[in-house]
Amino acid sequence: MKLTGRILALCLATGFPIGISAEEKIDPANLEAAYSEDGRYYTADDVPTYNIAEDGTVDWLTYSGFRRYHSECHVCHGPEGEGSTYAPAIKSAAALMDYYDFLEVVTNGRKVVKAGGQDSVMPAFGENPNVMCYLDDIYVYLKARGADVVERGRPAKKEAKSDVIREDENACLG
Amino acid sequence: MKRLLLLTSGMALAAGSMALANDGLVAEMGDPSQWAIQTGDYKNQRFSQLDQINADNVGDLQVAWTFSTGVLRGHEGSPLVVDDVMYVHTPFPNIVYALDLANDGKILWKYEPKQDPDVIPVMCCDTVNRGVAYAEGKIFLHQADTKIVALDAKTGEIAWEAVNGDPSIGETNTATVLPVKDKIIVGISGGEFGVQGHVTAYDMNTGEQVWRGYSVGPDDQLIFDENTTALGKPVGPDSSLNSWEGEQWKIGGGTTWGWYAADLDENLMYYGTGNPSTWNPAQRPGDNKWSMTIFARDIDTGLTKWVYQMTPHDEWDYDGVNEMILTEQEVDGVERKLLTHFDRNGLAYTMDRVSGELLVAEKYDPVVNWTTGVDMDPESENYGRPAVVAQYSTEQNGEDVNSTGICPAALGTKDQQPAAYSPETELFYVPTNHVCMDYEPFRVSYTAGQPYVGATLSMYPAPDSHGGMGNFIAWDNVNGEIKWSIPEQFSVWSGALATSGDVVFYGTLEGYLKAVHAETGEELYKFKTPSGIIGNVMTYESGGKQYVGILSGIGGWAGIGLAAGLTNPNDGLGAVGGYAALSDYTALGGQLTVFALPD
Questions:
Q1: What is the pTM of this model?
Q2: Cβ(B175)–Cβ(B130) under 8 Å?
Q3: What spatial distance separates the first Cα and last Cα of chain A, rounded to whole Å?
Q4: What is the mean pLDDT of each run of 10 residues along chain B (599 residues)?
Q5: What are the start-end ranges of the E strands in B300-400?
Q6: Who among B70, B440, B576 is closest to A152 (CB)?
């Protein structure tokens, strides 16, 4: 699983810009919510994940991730994680990648140096509270996009923001 | 005393060569067989006197030769042609090629700078570069990492280098430079990283910094004095500081990455400043002067003669950086020196470029809805201000509220892609975007070198229109009217070229080079190049033959925003993904295509 994610992520860096079709490799256990805690959802392995109700209501983190993604990430990776001429599509990457690898790449960045000016450089966001305080939100949103359970565009219905999420956010932003 | 003498003689020498340098480039720009500056001339007209290719025969145009740049990213700007040598630049890593036009385009020299790839992710929206400049036997390159390099035009040897900014705090460069008199005047990018924007003049011969004028901050940094005016009235002391809360101005934006113009008779250079940082207006109360502003500065000292802020307290990211096009035209029976500017905010401004008086401010796309128009009454306390429509005000709707249906989108009715002007038709030919947006601002904190945005955007084609995302229009700047408009499927992100042959050229994001009639807009020719076009069309003559050149290579903000197609969340689920995706039409590239008539 881990290996597949890494290989795919490297392939993505060369892609223009979309059309990744490796959905069959996604492990359902990495998607399904096993339990929830204070408005956040987790898989059986305690990895954050999305929760989409039958009427399309998304959990708060998925909604928040939509907003934060389109503030911090979309200027390179394009709208809704679809990729651009500049940076790879990352919606599938989030669904395929190991959660802890995802955190590592966002925190520390990644460089793929190639000939002909095609260097692909992901910056390190480790010191950026606008990203780090919403890392799970962005991860969960992209995973929902990669699993194709959330449409492009702004999710129409969302769960309320829980008090714990609000307190954690304030503590993180300082 | 000795030092003073030395200094004086140094100045005398500089003054001597100054006149020569200026005359040299002015002569090259006046020769239609050359394309000596990115903007066509100091007036930014992008007009050529060449007429061998004309409305009658342009339909016979053929590809004469091509050149691959070896880089596959967004290719903005255009090549230069001086003395039968073509200078071609690329996006990051910013390679420069000198091609011998007298010898089938043989590469005379190639310059490839060494730049730290860490600059790539601090460049908002792709690693584009809008081209090199030429003056006094040198080629001037302003790299992504803000290093300015002067190269010997004959050999590619480095004559001098200077560093204009610091990428580790988000200062980068995408623009060309303005070579004027004995100076190179350059800008800075990084409005999405909380940069304090500025323009800086360097000595053309040594690379020494001569002056730097900031967009926001105290008067000495702005280079304002008691004679600096806005709409005819002195701005008074601390005009910028008084329009910000606390020290937000220090990370206040106002970057300067557009195309500059110069009027040698007035000794003024003209440019516009970008958005105030952050995109969340609630975090920066006040007018945020002088972001979103047209500047007229003295070429030699940087002293600001006049300013005009188009979008006080921006709420939509409507950068004011687009080019200023200088013309001499009759207004109400009087010949005037005009400046015309097509702003991101959807308004086209016509001003007196000597006095800074506002003559016309009209929408150049009828869908523009965030304002009902500009107050044109000099007696009014709101003189020169746009009236903001409350429904589309992201400030009035507040943080964490999604304001919907705002036209234009943040990329503006036009971005940097420069318009052209024909003194023969007295029309402006303007590549435009026809895109609207939802905009939700929220609180963000500043970290040096990290994105500092603070808003979520969704963009989609203008509703209730032709469904496309662009138009190519002809504009009458005296009457403030659209003369004709050609709908385009995608935003038109290519710089236009007007010629004396009654032909206007532009490129499209699908990759077409198009030629249309200057009077009617009738399509006369099109050819699909290998990749989408975000470069600017240029023309030159070699061996008695007229050529038209264009860089292909999809990318830039167009490639990021449009690659996967747009969606309109307001249309309901059925329409999501229903709009054209650029990736269905074109792929990455990096190629120059040169056209000519058959022999």
A1: 0.91
A2: yes
A3: 36
A4: 41 43 83 97 98 98 97 94 97 96 97 89 84 97 97 98 95 96 96 94 97 98 98 98 96 96 97 95 97 98 98 97 98 97 98 98 98 97 98 95 95 96 98 94 90 88 92 98 97 97 97 98 98 97 97 88 66 46 88 97
A5: 304-309, 324-331, 334-342, 347-352, 358-363, 371-374, 386-388
A6: B576
pLDDT of residue B109: 98
What is the DSSP code (8-state) at residue B196? B
Dig out the tokens for B122 from the structure.
Answer: 């601090």
The angle subtended at Cα B484 by Cα B481 and Cα B485, nearest 5°, is 110
Find the farthest-apart pair of alpha carbons in chain B and give their distance in angstroms, rounded: 81
CB B67 within 8 A of CB B106: no
Of the candidates B70, B137, B66, B131, the one whose C-alpha atom is nearest the C-alpha of residue B104 is B66
Residue in chain A closest to B451 (alpha carbons) equals A72
From A89, A119, A125, residue closest to B117, measured CB to CB: A119
B324-331, strands of its sheet edge to edge: B324-331, B334-342, B347-352, B358-363
Whether residue B477 contacts residue B348, with contact meaning beta carbons closer than 8 Å, is answered with: yes
Cβ distance B559 to A121 less than 8 Å, yes or no, reads: no
What separation in angstroms does the CA of B566 have from each of A58, A91, B256, B489?
Answer: 22, 16, 28, 12
Catalytic residue, from B126, B145, B219, B317: name it.
Answer: B317
Nearest CA distance, A58 vs chain B (angstrom): 15
Decide: A130 and B450 in contact? Cβ < 8 Å.
yes
Count H helices, E strands: chain B? 4, 40
A31 pLDDT above the threshold of 60: yes
Minimal C-alpha gap between B200 and chain A (Å): 27
Distance from CA of A45 to the nearest CA of B (A): 31
**pLDDT at residue number A115:** 66
Residue B526 carries which DSSP code? E
* Whole-angstrom distance, CA of residue B449 vs CA of residue B455: 18
Distance CA B254, CA A18 (A): 34
Residue percentage of chain A with pLDDT more than 70: 84
Give the side-chain half-sphere CA count within 13 A for B572: 1
Which pLDDT does position A8 carry in this prediction?
A: 35
B439 vs B34: CA distance, rounded Å: 44
Candidates A17, A74, A122; nearest CB to B583 = A17
CA distance B449 to B57: 52
- Distance (Å, rounded) from C-alpha B492 to C-alpha B486? 10
Please indicate whether residue B317 is annotated as part of the active site.
yes
The DSSP 8-state label assigned to residue B369 in this structure reads -
For A88-118, what is each residue's pLDDT tens digit?
Answer: 888 888 888 899 999 999 999 988 877 666 6
ipTM score above 0.90: no
